[in-house]
């Protein structure tokens, strides 16, 4: 498939070669973790030209959880792929952790994705022949971690997602929800700057969805920047902020975090009064 | 009911029969429950409250004479307030639907702006319900109730998507333009 993008090869961008110290979540403090400027992606040409993403400007501050919603075909998945460097914009810029990534060369971009972006997809994309633990180790190994360090990290992450006891199981021996939790652990293996999730609960029943949302909530509390594309309003409602897309553009931008704290601070506060309590009428 | 009738009188003075026709068109089969006399009862009450005034009597070629009602200043104020007030978490589908219809007919508000505002309102309620749900086990009693509330809010939000599609297709002006 031929790309419409006039590509500027990333020769000038120095030291994509490993270990540039500015990387990792700490670097995000300076500005938004993710930034899109005039982001546009078209497919086809001439009269069959389709504007999948059409001039999107978006800043995702470090530590924010953002949900992107909209009807199918609105461009939300394409937007996510552009943000994560899986696809190239036709126009506009993508900045990750204060660094422009849309014009990096393929290899530099691949390296950057591995280190700084954690992906979670609707289909978990686990390797069938590898155990849960081995799947989670993989990204760390690919990024150059020692086998020992990778193993240690994988054990830690599987514990965090509540699957320490399933570490040796193959994906086929796990439930759908468990597989997705392994996929999330894998996405976190290299302490990514951002986690990008595309319909992460799309294949899950309501109990498994509940588990995934709890996990996301823990990540949120830990300050992980997270962008979730979803058509499920209940998933979107757990984010700090929801943007809706229509025909490739951002149609609405709503903050939901109100007076919510970073920590699990919602033990009963705010549920009466104007909140959920208003759903009940106590008149008799 | 009173608010809807007032809103339908915003564009121009009208009589009970016409109002009933317009309500029936907006409500479809749900309008069948609407008692034939109800509109007249409502109009009489609104007149007593000083919100509408009988303007004249029309004598059609055939059929009975019809009392034509018009909004008073107080009536206009009340309609404007109704348009501006948020529907609240318990508002039902038909009520909000009629508000959209009335908004479009009267030109008092942009239906799409009402849909947007309603979406934000419901989304915030849903956020609260979901946060509370995450703090409870799904199989606890409270968790079960929260799930029901979240599902209902979700259904309302999905219906709003349909409202947005329908009303943007009907919008007489350029998209996204407010019409204060």
Automatic annotation (TrEMBL), chain A:
Question: What organism does the UniProt record list as the source?
Answer: Microbispora siamensis
The alphabetical list of record keywords is: ATP-binding, Nucleotide-binding, Transport
- Cite a single Pfam family from the UniProt record: ABC_tran
Protein name (record): ABC transporter domain-containing protein
Using the UniProt annotation, give all residue ranges assigned to the region (Disordered).
1-27, 251-272
Would I find Transport among this entry's keywords? yes
Keyword ATP-binding in annotation: yes
Q: What InterPro entries would the database entry show? A: AAA+_ATPase, ABC_transporter-like_ATP-bd, ABC_transporter-like_CS, ABC_transpr_LolD-like, MacB-like_ATP-bd, P-loop_NTPase
Q: Which residues form the ABC transporter domain?
A: 34-272
Automatic annotation (TrEMBL), chain B:
Residues forming the Transcription regulator PadR N-terminal domain are 5-80
Q: Name one Pfam family in it.
A: PadR
Q: Which SUPFAM superfamilies match?
A: Winged helix' DNA-binding domain
Q: Which Gene3D superfamilies match?
A: Winged helix-like DNA-binding domain superfamily/Winged helix DNA-binding domain
Q: Which domain of life is it from?
A: Bacteria
> Which PANTHER family does this entry report, sorted A to Z?
NEGATIVE TRANSCRIPTION REGULATOR PADR, TRANSCRIPTIONAL REGULATOR YQJI
Q: What is the recorded name of this protein?
A: PadR family transcriptional regulator
Please name the source species.
Answer: Microbispora siamensis
């Amino acid at each position: 498939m031929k790309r419409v993008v006039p590509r500027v090869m990333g020769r000038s961008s120095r030291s994509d070669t490993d270990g540039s110290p500015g990387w990792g979540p700490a670097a995000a403090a300076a500005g938004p973790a993710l930034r899109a400027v005039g982001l546009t992606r078209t497919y086809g040409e001439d009269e069959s030209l389709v504007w999948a993403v059409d001039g999107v400007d978006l800043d995702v501050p470090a530590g924010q959880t953002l949900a992107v919603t909209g009807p199918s075909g609105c461009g939300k998945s394409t937007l996510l792929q552009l943000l994560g460097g899986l696809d190239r914009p036709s126009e506009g810029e993508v900045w990750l952790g204060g660094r422009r990534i849309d014009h990096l060369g393929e290899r530099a971009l691949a390296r950057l994705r591995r280190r700084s972006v954690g992906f979670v997809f609707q289909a978990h994309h686990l390797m069938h022949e590898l155990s849960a633990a081995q799947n989670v180790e993989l990204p760390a190994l690919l990024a150059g971690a020692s086998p020992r360090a990778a193993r240690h990290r994988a054990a830690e992450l599987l514990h965090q997602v509540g699957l320490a006891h399933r570490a040796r199981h193959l994906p086929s021996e796990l439930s759908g929800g468990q597989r997705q939790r392994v996929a999330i652990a894998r996405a976190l293996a290299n302490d990514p700057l951002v986690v990008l999730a595309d319909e992460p609960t799309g294949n899950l029943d309501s109990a498994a969805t509940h588990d995934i949302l709890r996990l996301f909530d823990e990540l949120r509390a830990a300050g992980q920047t997270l962008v979730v594309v979803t058509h499920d309003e209940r998933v979107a409602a757990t984010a700090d902020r929801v943007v809706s897309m229509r025909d490739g553009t951002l149609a609405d931008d709503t903050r939901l975090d109100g007076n919510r704290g970073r920590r699990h601070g919602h033990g009963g506060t705010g549920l009466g009064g104007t909140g959920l309590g208003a759903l009940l009428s106590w008149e008799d | 009911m009173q608010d809807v009738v007032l809103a339908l009188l915003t564009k121009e003075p009208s009589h009970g029969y016409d109002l009933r026709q317009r309500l029936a068109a907006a409500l479809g089969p749900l309008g069948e429950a609407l008692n034939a006399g109800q509109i007249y009862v409502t109009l009489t009450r609104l007149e007593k409250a000083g919100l509408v005034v009988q303007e004249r009597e029309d004598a059609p070629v055939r059929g009975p004479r019809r009392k034509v009602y018009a909004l008073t200043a107080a009536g206009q104020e009340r309609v404007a307030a109704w348009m501006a007030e948020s529907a609240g978490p318990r508002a039902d589908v038909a009520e909000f639907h009629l508000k959209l219809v009335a908004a479009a007919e009267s030109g008092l508000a942009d239906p799409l702006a009402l849909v947007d505002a309603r979406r934000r309102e419901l989304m915030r309620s849903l956020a609260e319900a979901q946060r509370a749900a995450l703090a409870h086990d799904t199989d606890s009693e409270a968790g079960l109730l929260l799930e029901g509330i979240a599902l209902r809010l979700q259904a309302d939000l999905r219906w709003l998507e349909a409202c947005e599609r329908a009303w943007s297709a009907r919008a007489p002006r350029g998209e996204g333009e407010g019409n204060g």
